Protein: 4-hydroxy-tetrahydrodipicolinate synthase
Organism: Bifidobacterium canis
Amino acid sequence: MHLLDPAPFGRVLPAMITPMKENGDVDFDMAQKVAKQLVADGADGLVVNGTTGESPTTHMDEKVDLVKAVREVVDVPIISGAGSNDTAHTVRMVEQTQEAGADAVLVVCPYYSRPSQEGIFCHYQAVNESASKPIIIYDVPGRTGVHIKLDTYVHLAELDHVTAVKDATGDIAGAVRKRMETGLTWYSGDDALFLPFLSIGAVGVISVVAHAAAAPMRELAEAFDCGDVAKAQALANRIAPAIEAMNGTGFQAVMAKAAMKVRGVMECTKMRLPNVGPNSEQLDVVRDGLRAAGLLPE
């Protein structure tokens, strides 16, 4: 028995950090190390150039080179963030990151400018015309300031390259109707809602806490898929302290770098302004959360 639909881009996809050197340059060698570690942990897909990867402060050539670097060392689907509130810039990012080897592109709903529903559709339509790889819609109204409505989703699903959604709306009831009426593949964009989203037909998660918890998250998905809901619930409860530690303050990119440091994967936690790397208190919060979740030795 299998309860879950196939996951075309993997079930557990860390929204991977972008390691940087002390001078602020992207550290591509460390990015390769992190990517290999995450896959060894149990991730079966990776998202690069997302918000957790500091995409607002990395440049086009860095995004392209990051896709190439990660592509060299792992054999799992690689999704590249390629979204902006400027449609022309988004189109260029989509073209260049897919040419660099991305298996799909994650395109956020245009933020800050708060376009109409027609404007949202036209944005994705322009992206669709330039895409040769699958497009994953990233719906995160807490960051964009706009909600993609059901009718708009129905029209977006008619675009030939739009295949999936990263849903960070927190609206489980809304996701049920959107998924049923569009036939799109659904991914949870919220670690805390991973299990509830699986229960309504999502196939996986694009995750922050997977920087430390890819293995139990993969176990959770496998348990649910086999119908062992009690085991899936137990794993969700076990992971909860790590989710709270890494997501509770809203500084996910900061806390994801903190997690890789306390795990001993990397030392430098440099970030580009306006983000500031984790301080000692934040490192302690993450360390305590991972220990409480059984993800670090006591």
Notes: The chain has one domain: 12-239. Strands lie at 12-14, 46-48, 78-81, 104-108, 135-139, 162-167, 185-188, 204-207. The first strand starts at residue 12 and ends at 14. Residues 229-247 form the longest helix (19 residues).
